[in-house]
Amino acid sequence: MEKLVIEGGRPLAGTVRIQGAKNAALPILAASVMAKGVHRIQNVPDLLDIHVMLDILRSLGCKAELANGTVTINTALMHSSHIPEELMGQMRSSIFLMGPLLARFGEVRVYQPGGCAIGERKINLHLLGLEALGAKVEESGNRIVCTASQLVGSDVFLDFPSVGATENIMMAAAKAEGLTTIHNAAREPEIQDLQNYLNAMGANIYGAGTDTITIKGVPRLVPVTYSVIPDRIVTGTLMIAAAVTRGSITLENTNSSHLTSAIHALRRAGVQISIDGDIIHVCCHGRPKAVERIVTSPHPAFPTDLQSQVMVLLSLADGMSIIKETIFEGRFKHVDELARMGADIRIDQANAYIRGVPRLYGATVEATDLRAGAALVIAGLAARGITVVEQIHHIDRGYDRIEEILARLGASITRTDVSTSTAAWTTGSPAAGKLVSEA
Ligand SMILES: CC(=O)N[C@H]1[C@@H](OP(=O)(O)OP(=O)(O)OC[C@H]2O[C@@H](n3ccc(=O)[nH]c3=O)[C@H](O)[C@@H]2O)O[C@H](CO)[C@@H](O)[C@@H]1O
Ligand SMILES: C=C(OP(=O)(O)O)C(=O)O
Protein backbone atom coordinates (compact mmCIF):
# COMPACT_ATOMS: atom_id res chain seq x y z
CA MET A 1 0.00 0.00 0.00
CA GLU A 2 1.52 3.33 -1.02
CA LYS A 3 1.85 6.25 1.38
CA LEU A 4 3.09 9.79 1.30
CA VAL A 5 5.79 10.70 3.80
CA ILE A 6 6.14 14.40 4.44
CA GLU A 7 8.65 16.24 6.55
CA GLY A 8 6.92 19.49 7.38
CA GLY A 9 8.17 22.98 7.96
CA ARG A 10 9.55 24.03 4.58
CA PRO A 11 8.02 27.14 2.99
CA LEU A 12 6.92 26.38 -0.56
CA ALA A 13 8.63 28.44 -3.25
CA GLY A 14 8.72 28.37 -7.04
CA THR A 15 6.43 28.06 -10.02
CA VAL A 16 4.11 25.28 -11.22
CA ARG A 17 1.72 24.89 -14.11
CA ILE A 18 -1.78 23.83 -13.15
CA GLN A 19 -3.17 20.58 -14.60
CA GLY A 20 -6.38 20.34 -16.58
CA ALA A 21 -9.58 20.00 -14.58
CA LYS A 22 -10.69 16.48 -13.63
CA ASN A 23 -14.28 17.60 -13.23
CA ALA A 24 -14.30 19.14 -16.70
CA ALA A 25 -12.38 16.36 -18.45
CA LEU A 26 -14.61 13.53 -17.18
CA PRO A 27 -17.96 14.74 -18.59
CA ILE A 28 -16.21 15.83 -21.79
CA LEU A 29 -14.76 12.35 -22.29
CA ALA A 30 -18.23 10.90 -21.68
CA ALA A 31 -19.80 13.34 -24.17
CA SER A 32 -17.38 12.23 -26.89
CA VAL A 33 -19.42 9.06 -27.50
CA MET A 34 -22.17 11.19 -29.05
CA ALA A 35 -20.10 11.94 -32.16
CA LYS A 36 -18.73 9.04 -34.21
CA GLY A 37 -15.04 9.34 -35.12
CA VAL A 38 -11.74 10.48 -33.63
CA HIS A 39 -11.70 13.13 -30.87
CA ARG A 40 -8.60 14.71 -29.37
CA ILE A 41 -9.06 16.06 -25.84
CA GLN A 42 -6.07 18.07 -24.67
CA ASN A 43 -4.90 19.23 -21.22
CA VAL A 44 -6.23 16.04 -19.62
CA PRO A 45 -4.64 15.21 -16.24
CA ASP A 46 -3.16 11.76 -15.64
CA LEU A 47 -5.48 10.60 -12.85
CA LEU A 48 -7.05 7.37 -11.62
CA ASP A 49 -10.54 8.63 -12.50
CA ILE A 50 -9.46 9.47 -16.04
CA HIS A 51 -8.06 5.94 -16.45
CA VAL A 52 -11.32 4.46 -15.16
CA MET A 53 -13.23 6.56 -17.71
CA LEU A 54 -10.90 5.33 -20.48
CA ASP A 55 -11.41 1.71 -19.31
CA ILE A 56 -15.18 2.20 -19.47
CA LEU A 57 -14.96 3.71 -22.96
CA ARG A 58 -12.82 0.77 -24.09
CA SER A 59 -15.31 -1.70 -22.61
CA LEU A 60 -17.93 -0.09 -24.87
CA GLY A 61 -15.80 -0.57 -27.98
CA CYS A 62 -13.96 2.78 -28.19
CA LYS A 63 -10.25 3.05 -28.78
CA ALA A 64 -8.94 5.42 -26.11
CA GLU A 65 -5.40 6.40 -25.09
CA LEU A 66 -3.88 9.12 -22.91
CA ALA A 67 -0.43 10.33 -23.99
CA ASN A 68 1.30 13.60 -23.07
CA GLY A 69 -1.89 15.14 -21.73
CA THR A 70 -3.98 14.34 -24.80
CA VAL A 71 -6.68 11.69 -24.93
CA THR A 72 -7.32 10.32 -28.39
CA ILE A 73 -10.65 8.51 -28.60
CA ASN A 74 -12.13 6.74 -31.58
CA THR A 75 -15.85 6.25 -30.97
CA ALA A 76 -16.66 4.95 -34.46
CA LEU A 77 -16.82 1.25 -33.65
CA MET A 78 -18.68 1.30 -30.34
CA HIS A 79 -20.73 -1.82 -29.89
CA SER A 80 -22.27 -1.52 -26.45
CA SER A 81 -24.16 0.79 -24.13
CA HIS A 82 -23.89 -1.55 -21.13
CA ILE A 83 -21.36 -0.45 -18.53
CA PRO A 84 -19.95 -3.29 -16.41
CA GLU A 85 -20.92 -3.04 -12.73
CA GLU A 86 -17.31 -3.34 -11.56
CA LEU A 87 -16.28 -0.26 -13.62
CA MET A 88 -19.42 1.74 -12.71
CA GLY A 89 -18.59 1.29 -9.03
CA GLN A 90 -15.09 2.71 -9.29
CA MET A 91 -16.10 6.36 -9.45
CA ARG A 92 -19.04 8.74 -9.37
CA SER A 93 -18.33 10.10 -12.84
CA SER A 94 -19.27 6.82 -14.54
CA ILE A 95 -22.83 8.20 -14.33
CA PHE A 96 -21.91 10.90 -16.88
CA LEU A 97 -22.16 8.26 -19.61
CA MET A 98 -25.86 7.71 -19.07
CA GLY A 99 -27.10 10.75 -21.05
CA PRO A 100 -24.60 10.40 -23.94
CA LEU A 101 -25.13 6.63 -24.36
CA LEU A 102 -28.88 7.08 -24.29
CA ALA A 103 -28.56 9.78 -26.95
CA ARG A 104 -26.43 7.56 -29.16
CA PHE A 105 -28.00 4.11 -28.69
CA GLY A 106 -31.53 4.79 -27.44
CA GLU A 107 -30.75 2.49 -24.53
CA VAL A 108 -28.28 2.39 -21.66
CA ARG A 109 -27.68 -0.16 -18.89
CA VAL A 110 -25.73 1.04 -15.88
CA TYR A 111 -25.40 0.45 -12.13
CA GLN A 112 -25.31 2.84 -9.20
CA PRO A 113 -22.01 4.77 -9.46
CA GLY A 114 -19.23 4.62 -6.87
CA GLY A 115 -17.13 7.57 -5.70
CA CYS A 116 -15.94 9.26 -2.54
CA ALA A 117 -17.91 8.45 0.61
CA ILE A 118 -18.86 12.02 1.40
CA GLY A 119 -22.62 11.68 1.50
CA GLU A 120 -25.56 9.75 0.14
CA ARG A 121 -25.08 11.12 -3.39
CA LYS A 122 -28.34 10.02 -4.96
CA ILE A 123 -28.88 10.15 -8.73
CA ASN A 124 -32.62 10.88 -8.63
CA LEU A 125 -32.18 14.27 -10.34
CA HIS A 126 -30.25 12.68 -13.22
CA LEU A 127 -33.05 10.13 -13.70
CA LEU A 128 -35.87 12.67 -13.38
CA GLY A 129 -34.17 14.85 -15.97
CA LEU A 130 -33.84 11.98 -18.45
CA GLU A 131 -37.47 11.00 -17.83
CA ALA A 132 -38.49 14.58 -18.59
CA LEU A 133 -36.84 14.10 -22.02
CA GLY A 134 -39.00 11.03 -22.60
CA ALA A 135 -36.75 8.24 -21.35
CA LYS A 136 -38.22 5.21 -19.62
CA VAL A 137 -36.22 4.42 -16.49
CA GLU A 138 -36.34 1.00 -14.82
CA GLU A 139 -34.46 0.39 -11.60
CA SER A 140 -33.98 -3.02 -10.13
CA GLY A 141 -31.63 -3.27 -7.15
CA ASN A 142 -28.37 -1.70 -8.18
CA ARG A 143 -29.18 -1.85 -11.89
CA ILE A 144 -30.68 0.94 -13.99
CA VAL A 145 -31.97 0.54 -17.53
CA CYS A 146 -32.94 3.64 -19.50
CA THR A 147 -34.59 3.53 -22.93
CA ALA A 148 -35.84 6.14 -25.39
CA SER A 149 -36.25 5.55 -29.12
CA GLN A 150 -36.09 9.37 -29.55
CA LEU A 151 -35.39 11.85 -26.77
CA VAL A 152 -37.65 14.91 -26.96
CA GLY A 153 -36.79 18.37 -25.60
CA SER A 154 -38.63 19.57 -22.52
CA ASP A 155 -38.58 21.96 -19.55
CA VAL A 156 -36.56 20.43 -16.73
CA PHE A 157 -36.73 21.89 -13.22
CA LEU A 158 -33.98 20.78 -10.85
CA ASP A 159 -34.88 20.86 -7.13
CA PHE A 160 -31.19 21.45 -6.45
CA PRO A 161 -28.53 22.75 -8.88
CA SER A 162 -26.74 19.40 -9.14
CA VAL A 163 -23.58 19.63 -11.23
CA GLY A 164 -23.76 16.06 -12.54
CA ALA A 165 -27.50 16.13 -13.24
CA THR A 166 -27.15 19.42 -15.15
CA GLU A 167 -24.36 17.88 -17.25
CA ASN A 168 -26.16 14.60 -17.91
CA ILE A 169 -29.32 16.38 -19.01
CA MET A 170 -27.37 18.84 -21.20
CA MET A 171 -25.64 15.97 -22.98
CA ALA A 172 -28.83 13.96 -23.54
CA ALA A 173 -30.69 17.07 -24.74
CA ALA A 174 -27.94 18.02 -27.21
CA LYS A 175 -29.30 15.41 -29.66
CA ALA A 176 -32.95 15.42 -28.55
CA GLU A 177 -35.71 16.59 -30.85
CA GLY A 178 -36.63 20.23 -30.08
CA LEU A 179 -35.89 22.60 -27.24
CA THR A 180 -34.85 21.77 -23.67
CA THR A 181 -34.57 24.33 -20.90
CA ILE A 182 -32.88 23.39 -17.64
CA HIS A 183 -34.14 25.60 -14.81
CA ASN A 184 -32.13 25.96 -11.57
CA ALA A 185 -29.12 24.57 -13.41
CA ALA A 186 -25.74 24.36 -11.70
CA ARG A 187 -23.41 27.21 -12.69
CA GLU A 188 -19.97 25.64 -12.20
CA PRO A 189 -17.21 26.55 -14.71
CA GLU A 190 -16.97 22.88 -15.71
CA ILE A 191 -20.51 23.14 -17.08
CA GLN A 192 -19.45 26.04 -19.28
CA ASP A 193 -16.53 23.94 -20.49
CA LEU A 194 -18.88 21.09 -21.38
CA GLN A 195 -21.13 23.53 -23.24
CA ASN A 196 -18.13 24.82 -25.19
CA TYR A 197 -17.07 21.29 -26.12
CA LEU A 198 -20.58 20.26 -27.17
CA ASN A 199 -21.00 23.45 -29.21
CA ALA A 200 -17.63 22.86 -30.88
CA MET A 201 -19.06 19.47 -31.95
CA GLY A 202 -22.06 21.21 -33.50
CA ALA A 203 -24.52 21.38 -30.58
CA ASN A 204 -26.66 24.44 -29.99
CA ILE A 205 -26.51 25.27 -26.28
CA TYR A 206 -26.39 28.54 -24.41
CA GLY A 207 -26.73 29.79 -20.86
CA ALA A 208 -24.14 27.57 -19.12
CA GLY A 209 -22.75 29.58 -16.23
CA THR A 210 -26.23 30.92 -15.46
CA ASP A 211 -29.10 29.08 -13.78
CA THR A 212 -31.01 28.63 -17.06
CA ILE A 213 -29.50 26.55 -19.84
CA THR A 214 -31.22 26.22 -23.20
CA ILE A 215 -30.44 23.38 -25.56
CA LYS A 216 -31.76 23.22 -29.10
CA GLY A 217 -31.33 19.61 -30.15
CA VAL A 218 -29.38 18.82 -33.33
CA PRO A 219 -29.47 15.53 -35.28
CA ARG A 220 -25.71 15.06 -35.55
CA LEU A 221 -22.49 15.96 -33.75
CA VAL A 222 -18.98 15.72 -35.20
CA PRO A 223 -15.66 14.89 -33.47
CA VAL A 224 -13.29 17.77 -32.63
CA THR A 225 -10.05 18.66 -30.91
CA TYR A 226 -10.68 20.45 -27.61
CA SER A 227 -8.60 21.64 -24.65
CA VAL A 228 -9.89 21.31 -21.06
CA ILE A 229 -9.90 24.27 -18.62
CA PRO A 230 -7.40 24.47 -15.74
CA ASP A 231 -8.33 22.76 -12.48
CA ARG A 232 -9.64 25.38 -10.06
CA ILE A 233 -9.58 22.96 -7.11
CA VAL A 234 -5.93 22.00 -7.67
CA THR A 235 -5.18 25.74 -7.97
CA GLY A 236 -6.94 26.44 -4.67
CA THR A 237 -5.24 23.48 -2.98
CA LEU A 238 -1.78 24.76 -3.91
CA MET A 239 -2.68 28.31 -2.87
CA ILE A 240 -3.58 27.00 0.57
CA ALA A 241 -0.45 24.83 0.70
CA ALA A 242 1.66 27.93 0.03
CA ALA A 243 -0.19 29.88 2.71
CA VAL A 244 0.13 27.29 5.49
CA THR A 245 3.86 26.90 4.88
CA ARG A 246 4.26 30.71 4.78
CA GLY A 247 5.71 30.32 1.34
CA SER A 248 5.58 32.23 -1.92
CA ILE A 249 4.56 30.48 -5.13
CA THR A 250 3.48 31.28 -8.67
CA LEU A 251 0.79 29.25 -10.42
CA GLU A 252 0.60 29.27 -14.20
CA ASN A 253 -2.30 28.21 -16.44
CA THR A 254 -4.99 29.28 -13.96
CA ASN A 255 -8.34 30.99 -14.28
CA SER A 256 -8.84 33.20 -11.23
CA SER A 257 -12.41 34.05 -12.26
CA HIS A 258 -13.30 30.44 -11.41
CA LEU A 259 -12.05 30.95 -7.86
CA THR A 260 -13.51 34.30 -6.85
CA SER A 261 -15.06 33.18 -3.56
CA ALA A 262 -12.05 31.09 -2.56
CA ILE A 263 -9.67 33.97 -3.28
CA HIS A 264 -11.89 36.28 -1.22
CA ALA A 265 -11.86 33.82 1.72
CA LEU A 266 -8.08 33.39 1.55
CA ARG A 267 -7.54 37.15 1.46
CA ARG A 268 -9.73 37.48 4.56
CA ALA A 269 -7.37 34.97 6.20
CA GLY A 270 -4.45 37.28 5.44
CA VAL A 271 -3.09 35.45 2.40
CA GLN A 272 -1.59 37.79 -0.20
CA ILE A 273 -2.77 36.99 -3.71
CA SER A 274 -1.95 38.84 -6.91
CA ILE A 275 -3.31 38.01 -10.33
CA ASP A 276 -1.79 38.74 -13.71
CA GLY A 277 -3.75 37.19 -16.58
CA ASP A 278 -3.58 33.43 -16.13
CA ILE A 279 -0.90 33.67 -13.44
CA ILE A 280 -1.64 33.73 -9.71
CA HIS A 281 1.02 34.61 -7.17
CA VAL A 282 0.40 33.61 -3.55
CA CYS A 283 2.35 34.37 -0.42
CA CYS A 284 1.71 34.46 3.28
CA HIS A 285 3.90 36.03 5.94
CA GLY A 286 3.06 35.26 9.51
CA ARG A 287 0.13 33.46 11.05
CA PRO A 288 -3.16 33.34 9.11
CA LYS A 289 -6.15 35.23 10.53
CA ALA A 290 -9.34 33.50 11.59
CA VAL A 291 -12.30 33.86 9.24
CA GLU A 292 -15.61 34.31 10.99
CA ARG A 293 -17.59 32.07 8.65
CA ILE A 294 -17.11 30.19 5.37
CA VAL A 295 -20.18 28.49 3.89
CA THR A 296 -19.85 25.96 1.09
CA SER A 297 -22.59 26.28 -1.53
CA PRO A 298 -23.06 25.80 -5.27
CA HIS A 299 -20.89 27.98 -7.54
CA PRO A 300 -20.11 30.87 -7.39
CA ALA A 301 -20.07 30.42 -3.58
CA PHE A 302 -17.20 28.73 -1.74
CA PRO A 303 -16.63 25.25 -3.26
CA THR A 304 -17.15 22.17 -1.11
CA ASP A 305 -14.12 20.67 -2.88
CA LEU A 306 -11.87 23.19 -1.07
CA GLN A 307 -13.54 22.88 2.32
CA SER A 308 -11.15 20.32 3.81
CA GLN A 309 -8.09 22.19 2.58
CA VAL A 310 -9.17 25.60 3.90
CA MET A 311 -9.89 23.95 7.25
CA VAL A 312 -6.16 23.28 7.60
CA LEU A 313 -5.40 26.97 7.07
CA LEU A 314 -7.99 27.96 9.66
CA SER A 315 -6.67 25.31 12.07
CA LEU A 316 -3.46 27.32 12.16
CA ALA A 317 -5.14 30.75 12.27
CA ASP A 318 -5.14 33.20 15.13
CA GLY A 319 -8.65 32.88 16.57
CA MET A 320 -11.90 30.99 16.07
CA SER A 321 -13.36 30.29 12.59
CA ILE A 322 -16.51 28.51 11.49
CA ILE A 323 -17.03 26.47 8.33
CA LYS A 324 -20.52 25.39 7.32
CA GLU A 325 -20.73 22.51 4.80
CA THR A 326 -24.04 22.60 2.96
CA ILE A 327 -23.39 20.29 -0.02
CA PHE A 328 -22.29 16.91 1.36
CA GLU A 329 -23.47 15.63 4.75
CA GLY A 330 -20.42 13.38 5.19
CA ARG A 331 -17.59 15.71 4.32
CA PHE A 332 -15.97 16.24 7.72
CA LYS A 333 -14.09 12.94 7.92
CA HIS A 334 -10.74 14.73 7.81
CA VAL A 335 -11.51 16.38 11.16
CA ASP A 336 -10.56 13.35 13.28
CA GLU A 337 -7.33 13.01 11.32
CA LEU A 338 -6.48 16.70 11.73
CA ALA A 339 -7.18 16.34 15.45
CA ARG A 340 -4.49 13.65 15.56
CA MET A 341 -2.10 16.31 14.27
CA GLY A 342 -3.10 18.72 17.04
CA ALA A 343 -5.95 20.69 15.42
CA ASP A 344 -8.74 21.88 17.72
CA ILE A 345 -12.02 21.42 15.80
CA ARG A 346 -15.53 20.73 17.09
CA ILE A 347 -18.30 19.54 14.79
CA ASP A 348 -21.93 20.37 15.41
CA GLN A 349 -24.07 19.01 12.56
CA ALA A 350 -23.05 20.93 9.41
CA ASN A 351 -20.79 23.38 11.28
CA ALA A 352 -17.13 23.00 12.13
CA TYR A 353 -15.86 25.29 14.90
CA ILE A 354 -12.12 25.69 14.43
CA ARG A 355 -10.01 27.15 17.22
CA GLY A 356 -6.66 27.95 15.63
CA VAL A 357 -3.55 26.44 17.19
CA PRO A 358 -0.04 27.81 16.72
CA ARG A 359 1.29 24.54 15.35
CA LEU A 360 0.33 21.12 13.99
CA TYR A 361 2.44 18.03 14.61
CA GLY A 362 3.27 15.15 12.31
CA ALA A 363 1.24 11.96 12.68
CA THR A 364 0.19 8.90 10.71
CA VAL A 365 -3.16 9.76 9.18
CA GLU A 366 -5.57 8.29 6.66
CA ALA A 367 -7.05 9.93 3.56
CA THR A 368 -10.75 9.12 3.77
CA ASP A 369 -11.60 10.78 0.45
CA LEU A 370 -9.94 12.83 -2.28
CA ARG A 371 -10.02 16.33 -0.81
CA ALA A 372 -9.64 15.07 2.76
CA GLY A 373 -6.42 13.46 1.54
CA ALA A 374 -5.25 16.72 -0.03
CA ALA A 375 -5.97 18.50 3.26
CA LEU A 376 -3.85 16.02 5.21
CA VAL A 377 -0.97 16.54 2.79
CA ILE A 378 -1.26 20.30 3.32
CA ALA A 379 -1.35 19.77 7.08
CA GLY A 380 1.76 17.61 6.81
CA LEU A 381 3.60 20.34 4.89
CA ALA A 382 2.92 22.79 7.72
CA ALA A 383 3.38 20.39 10.62
CA ARG A 384 6.41 19.97 12.80
CA GLY A 385 7.91 16.52 12.22
CA ILE A 386 6.95 13.67 9.94
CA THR A 387 3.46 12.99 8.60
CA VAL A 388 2.56 9.73 6.91
CA VAL A 389 -0.60 9.88 4.79
CA GLU A 390 -2.17 6.49 4.07
CA GLN A 391 -4.88 5.44 1.59
CA ILE A 392 -3.48 7.82 -1.01
CA HIS A 393 -5.31 6.20 -3.91
CA HIS A 394 -8.03 8.72 -3.02
CA ILE A 395 -5.58 11.58 -3.69
CA ASP A 396 -4.52 10.03 -7.00
CA ARG A 397 -8.13 10.34 -8.19
CA GLY A 398 -7.72 14.11 -8.46
CA TYR A 399 -4.08 15.20 -8.30
CA ASP A 400 -1.63 14.36 -11.07
CA ARG A 401 1.39 13.16 -8.99
CA ILE A 402 0.90 15.49 -6.03
CA GLU A 403 4.29 14.61 -4.53
CA GLU A 404 6.12 15.69 -7.69
CA ILE A 405 4.30 19.02 -7.81
CA LEU A 406 5.05 19.75 -4.16
CA ALA A 407 8.65 18.51 -4.34
CA ARG A 408 9.18 20.92 -7.25
CA LEU A 409 8.06 23.67 -4.87
CA GLY A 410 10.64 22.61 -2.30
CA ALA A 411 8.56 20.32 -0.09
CA SER A 412 10.09 17.24 1.47
CA ILE A 413 7.60 14.62 0.33
CA THR A 414 8.04 11.11 -0.99
CA ARG A 415 5.77 8.31 -2.12
CA THR A 416 6.66 5.02 -0.55
CA ASP A 417 5.17 1.59 -0.15
CA VAL A 418 6.96 0.96 3.13
CA SER A 419 4.44 -0.74 5.41
CA THR A 420 3.85 0.48 8.94
CA SER A 421 5.11 -2.86 10.18
CA THR A 422 8.57 -2.26 8.70
CA ALA A 423 9.07 1.33 9.71
CA ALA A 424 8.50 3.23 12.89
CA TRP A 425 8.11 6.94 12.67
CA THR A 426 8.22 9.21 15.67
CA THR A 427 5.35 11.56 15.09
CA GLY A 428 2.78 13.61 16.94
CA SER A 429 4.85 15.50 19.45
CA PRO A 430 7.08 18.57 19.38
CA ALA A 431 10.09 16.30 19.50
CA ALA A 432 8.79 14.11 16.71
CA GLY A 433 9.90 13.79 13.16
CA LYS A 434 12.57 11.15 12.76
CA LEU A 435 12.52 7.78 11.11
CA VAL A 436 13.88 5.66 13.93
CA SER A 437 14.02 2.21 12.43
CA GLU A 438 13.45 0.46 9.18
CA ALA A 439 13.58 -3.27 8.66
C1 LIG B 1 -17.06 14.90 -11.22
C2 LIG B 1 -17.62 16.12 -10.61
O1 LIG B 1 -17.89 17.09 -11.28
N1 LIG B 1 -17.74 16.12 -9.28
C3 LIG B 1 -18.19 17.31 -8.61
C4 LIG B 1 -19.70 17.37 -8.68
O2 LIG B 1 -20.20 16.18 -8.08
P1 LIG B 1 -21.74 15.80 -8.27
O3 LIG B 1 -22.16 16.12 -9.64
O4 LIG B 1 -21.89 14.41 -7.80
O5 LIG B 1 -22.43 16.80 -7.25
P2 LIG B 1 -23.91 17.32 -7.24
O6 LIG B 1 -23.91 18.78 -7.49
O7 LIG B 1 -24.74 16.45 -8.10
O8 LIG B 1 -24.33 17.02 -5.73
C5 LIG B 1 -24.63 18.04 -4.81
C6 LIG B 1 -25.66 17.57 -3.82
O9 LIG B 1 -26.85 17.17 -4.50
C7 LIG B 1 -27.24 15.88 -4.10
N2 LIG B 1 -27.85 15.19 -5.27
C8 LIG B 1 -27.17 15.17 -6.46
C9 LIG B 1 -27.70 14.55 -7.56
C10 LIG B 1 -28.96 13.92 -7.44
O10 LIG B 1 -29.48 13.33 -8.38
N3 LIG B 1 -29.60 13.95 -6.25
C11 LIG B 1 -29.09 14.58 -5.15
O11 LIG B 1 -29.68 14.60 -4.09
C12 LIG B 1 -25.93 15.21 -3.65
O12 LIG B 1 -26.17 14.14 -2.76
C13 LIG B 1 -25.22 16.37 -2.99
O13 LIG B 1 -25.67 16.50 -1.67
O14 LIG B 1 -20.14 18.51 -7.97
C14 LIG B 1 -19.82 18.49 -6.57
C15 LIG B 1 -20.45 19.73 -5.93
O15 LIG B 1 -19.83 20.86 -6.39
C16 LIG B 1 -18.32 18.43 -6.39
O16 LIG B 1 -18.03 18.25 -5.02
C17 LIG B 1 -17.74 17.27 -7.16
O17 LIG B 1 -16.33 17.36 -7.16
C1 LIG C 1 -15.98 14.81 -4.82
C2 LIG C 1 -15.16 14.91 -5.86
O1 LIG C 1 -15.21 14.16 -6.99
P1 LIG C 1 -16.29 13.07 -7.45
O2 LIG C 1 -17.57 13.78 -7.69
O3 LIG C 1 -15.69 12.56 -8.70
O4 LIG C 1 -16.38 12.05 -6.36
C3 LIG C 1 -14.08 15.92 -5.88
O5 LIG C 1 -13.52 16.14 -6.97
O6 LIG C 1 -13.76 16.47 -4.83
Automatic annotation (TrEMBL):
Transferase recorded as keyword: yes
Gene: murA
Protein name, as recorded: UDP-N-acetylglucosamine 1-carboxyvinyltransferase
Enzyme class: transferase
This enzyme's EC code(s): 2.5.1.7
Keywords noted in UniProt: Transferase
Organism listed in the record: Paenibacillus mesotrionivorans
